[in-house]
User: Fold this.
Amino acid sequence: MSSYKEDLSVVRPYVRLEGIYKRFGDVEALKGVTLDIFTGQVLGLLGENGAGKTTLMNVLFGLYKPDAGHIYVNGRLVKIKSPAHAIGLGIFMVHQHFKLVSNYTALENIAIGMSSGLKSIKPMSLAELEERLNKIMEYSGLYVNLREKVKNLPLGVRQRVEILKALVRGIKILILDEPTTNLTPQEVDTLFKALRNLIREGLGVVFITHKLHEVMAVADEIAVLRSGVLLGRFKRPEVDQATVIKLIVGERIDLEKSIIFGGFKFLSTSTHMEGAANSELLKVENITLRDKLGTTILEDISFSLSRGEILGVAGVSGNGQREFVEVLFGIRRPTSGKMLLEGADITNSSIRDRILMGFFYIPEDRLSEGVSPTLSVMENLVLGIHFTYSTKKLLIDFKRIRDEATQLVKKYEIKTPDITTLASKLSGGNIQKLMVARAFHTRPKILIAHNPTRGLDIATTEKVLNEVLRLKSSGSGIIYVSEDLDELMLISDRIAVMYKGRLVGSLPRDKFDKYEIGKLMAGVVGG
Amino acid sequence: MAKISLTRLAKISLPYILSVSLAFGVAGLILYFGGYDVISSYRTILTASFWNLNSFFLTLTKFSTLLLMSLAFLTPYISRKFNIGVEGQYLMGALGATLVGLAVSAPPGIHIITSILTGVFFGFLWASVPAFLMARYSVNEVISTIMMNFIARYSVIVFAMSLWRDVASGHPMTIPINTTAMLPLLSSSPPLSSGIVFSIATALLLYFILAFTIFGYELRATGTNPRAAEVFGVNTKFLMPLSLMIGGGIAGFGGALDVTGYYYRLIEGMQSNYPSLGILIALLSKGKITLVVPIAFFISVIDVGTNALQRIQRVPIELVLILEGLLLVFILVSESLRWWKK
Assistant:
């Protein structure tokens, strides 16, 4: 196999993207990117959120038409019209959100679309497919219970189904978009091992990520993208990490002081831990939530949060995190259990009451819950606390809102033509900034943040983490729910894990261990 | 504040101008093949409202009712609820005002006010049924308001045919209300009801409430994204039904004004096609009161113009109605297609 690799992949790339240019409205997402993709290696496509990584690969997968530039596959100029066309050319992309039919088994999902047109009328031999898949699972190490319905599979396994779908179609280039997002550290290891196995068989992998340590662990080569420009390509052994970090973020942040890049020394863990016992802010006792059909969504959740504490909540998404934060903020009423704020029972307090008591919330889903699209940026910035901007109870004090919004837009670098611009005109990252600005502006006593840095570039992520830490030092309690374990381990004082609606384990900062948390995330109870 | 540039203004008005021209084009073709003078027909449609004070006042009268009808739809529409029940609420408002106007005797000022307020209240009450069903049992307001329209329509007939029936008329209607319940006229010859003052005042008040009050803010927040509003503590489950009831009150106000200021009685079919035109105007304006006013006026001009066409060019009424419908369809299509955008 090694001779094959030398003959084909090193000499000629399987895919060549040449001068790819793409714009969305006023935003230049890709400014002429040229990139070779070889079989037989893992190419790490590195860059912060919004750098254009996914856009570039969506172009290759036929989801976007480039405004300029050429794509060569196997040396031939092609115009890729659709994902089906891309698959025909040997290119497959696994997106962050899997495209599987949840009521079908893994095997059925893999079989979908394997024959088309008239051929699809002919009964298909699933047994033969299963046999082929068994072989692939064996050499790759990506095991899946093929007879299980997808809805019963954990997210990490669903990803394997997607990858198997690609492999069984004899794909040459596999594109993985942020594939570690919802994996436990153990699952990440398995995935990386599988990728090494697969490239030995001649597969080419494009691994999209914003995390340097991931590409350092798995990639043969690293390509760095920033603001739609390819800034460099390195062989992994020759990489100087500091140089790559500089390339990723540019000159915008001071690496010495950066939280993300390790300059940050945590405000000594002991300081607040000592007084923690007698400065309890929030106490949650035996919260259980059942839906209308009686299915248990949250089960017997108890914890307490102290002043100046950041409680990180880890877990694979879909384990009840959303319902958990909704119960805390009063959007849902728990079926049973109690919540006490500084001793006072707030279980049945309304959202508005909670806001008045000092709660605030950064929802996970920014489009459906974060903003009101046809209200202006300025009006959105006060959603939730708008009723405090009243003159004589009835009228809304737009002058004050305008002044404060102007400051917030500047402080949080929300890119908007004007504060009276409608929120629907903002990009996703800027909507996220708006939500963050709104939350910190209220100086909440208890902040409930659900994936608050999702989709933000590094400089803004830094800013959010800094604000969280400042809020902490002012004595607020923060419940920080995130799928990003690295981020949680950076800023939390304590990490608890959500698994199937239960809050399992609770590790103090000096006991943080990726693999230990990983076990809890996978439901291997311990810790 | 952002200045509205000329190009932007052109961009906004272009589709309206184009679709109106297109509608007039098709209407012209029909008139041409019908053997009518196309150019003078156009002139009639567009200028009939301004020929004399009489036709201008007629236009204003129509405008007054249309404006209230569209506001009755628009208020719930802002919180994303579709008040198809404008017709029923208008009729109940008219019925309420007639009831007080006929059955009660009181000094002029008080009588007028109680008649109108009763009308508003009847409209409000009529809308509160679908509002309650929506809040309590999640019944779709479109369906329930349509049903309420049926009930209102036939209730009017029953009422107009019973105790106060005007036996001299072949059409179901009541006898005139007491003179003490009649709204003073703005001008007596040609006549113009002072209702127009009230409907414009309603538009101004509503604009102010929506733009500058906490209630208006919450209503707009609810309409643009109910989930986000709810998550951040806005009581959408209360606001949505309430906005429907306010819409009902406005429609009832319209009915009451028409009874006390124009018809002076309850007449079967007095709602004409105003309720549906009102809904159309509100939809065209995309929920903006600043647009509702000019569009309502334009539609009134067209309405008076096409009616004049029937009288002057002897174009049959059916054709006139078809032309009017065509115009509206074209405007609506241009609105939803958005083909002028890139």
Observations:
- Chain A has 19 helices and 22 strands.
- Chain A touches chain B at residues 329, 331, 350-352, 354-355, 361, 363, 368-375, 379, 383-384, 386-387, 390, 393-396, 398, 417-418, 420 (CB under 8 Å).
